[in-house]
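Morning!

This is the sequence you dropped in the shared folder:
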Amino acid sequence: MSTWLVALVLLPIALVLIAGIVLLLARPLITPALAALERARLQRCLARTARGDAHLHEHEIEAALREFEAAFCLMIVRADTRLAEQIPRHHTGLLSRLLSVADDLPPQRVRLLALAKVDRLLDRRSEMQRAYLQLRNRPLRDARRLQLERELRRNARDLRTAVRELVADLQLITSRRVAVQ
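The structure's back. Tokens below.
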């Protein structure tokens, strides 16, 4: 009888210890897996950019603009700090491609305003991402970390809208140019 009582007391303690050890071992294993997933997402965005470049070389402006719109990488980087440096460079390349498309079109102020708005939102996103990565060693439910995640999600939503507006402006101008020719 006493053996059963000891077993019933020790069993939950052993289960809690095993769960704690698994959690301690899993965290270092999850980080590389998460970093690999983040790198894969960036690679997909880079592939879309390459497809957009191919469309641009074939003078298929509409298809290129769609690919460039989809190529913006608006994820929250949680594991790989190098990605936090690569993504702004990727976005700068996308903006330069969109600017080159705009330069080939008749002059319009609307697209330059949309381009400036996207650039401003991307700069803000880069600052928030750096701040978020500085807080990554804090607990998952840290108030500042949660606030930055919300702001990054809101920024991604605003950026998608601004990029959509920019691409729509460029498509409108492109269709006008085609209609005039």
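Headline: The chain is about 85% helix and 0% strand.

More detail when I'm at my desk.
O.
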